[in-house]
Specification:
By secondary structure, this protein is α/β, with parallel strands linked by helices. The protein folds into 2 domains: 156 residues, Thiamin diphosphate (ThDP)-binding fold, Pyr/PP domains (Rossmann fold, 3-Layer(aba) Sandwich); 128 residues, Rossmann fold, CATH 3.40.50. The strands form 2 sheets. It has a 7-stranded mixed beta sheet with strand order 2-1-3-4-6-5-10, sandwiched between helices. A 5-stranded mixed beta sheet has the order 7-9-8-11-12, sandwiched between helices. Helix 11 links the parallel strand 11 and strand 12. The longest helix is centred in the middle third of the chain and has 14 residues. It is globular, with a radius of gyration of 19 Å. The chain starts with a helix and ends with a helix.
Amino acid sequence: MAKAIREIYGEALVKYGRDNTDVVVLDADVSGSTRSALFQAVCPERFFNVGVAEANMSAMAAGFASVGKIPFVNTFATFITTIGLLSARVFGSYSGLNIKFMGAYGGLSDAYDGPSHHSIEDLAIMRSLPNFRVYVASDEKNADWLVKHAIDSKGPMYIRLSRDVFPSVYESGTTFEDGKGKVLRKGKDATIVACGLMVGFALDAANLLASDGIDVTVIDMFTIKPLDADLIVESAKTTGAVAVAEEHSVIGGLGGAVAEVLARNGVGVPVSFVGLADCHAECGAYTELLAKYGLDVQAIVAGVRETVAKKL
């Protein structure tokens, strides 16, 4: 049975951090939700609950990083990228300290807590910070790898996680590479570039589109920054149309990053953006919110049809 992304994250912290005494974990009094509590249970001497003080937590992490530790900073994505942003900018981006900012409950996954807890602009914020690397977990295997990658790699990093269970898109033993997207399906009529929950949805959308004779490539762009520009350009030129799908505002996130790459490389193909349309979402059941705000399989199908119809 599939596990929630947050559960995979907590287990990976234990798996890769238990025997590495440089790993320290900080949480803003939500360790039961972020699942950093699993690390606390086995390594209490390297776990620090700072209370509801996200700015202080991020600054404390800088202190740990300055003496060679690998701090994992945990709270909901919307708070880590707002209240914790000043420290992320000064100590991570500017100073280059080895801090790992783990954004729990990304997108609309904190569904019933509503717009104050939804994270719809975090990717736009964090990818704009110089020296930061930015990732979005796309399934269980990818989330596990991202934790190991965070420990093994030097430098500031933001990883968006989720409260929920995601469709499994990878087999055991799949390898991932920093800055390299994964082609999950090859087609000739359009390209779907997706991240997070939308990757599994994109594969389902591709199957529906195939029944109508539209053959699409699906790319998991879990590595938002560094972005796999070569793959985007190659696939856009091959298929002649691109749809970007993300559980994020259509402004400034993966869609913005893809559009920048295409413009910079002079690739003039139609592009559609499947995401939250410059608004906040309300409270409600997660699946209902995704459907209402255009973040489901049918929205991706519509986005592909829109961009294919614009091909010359």
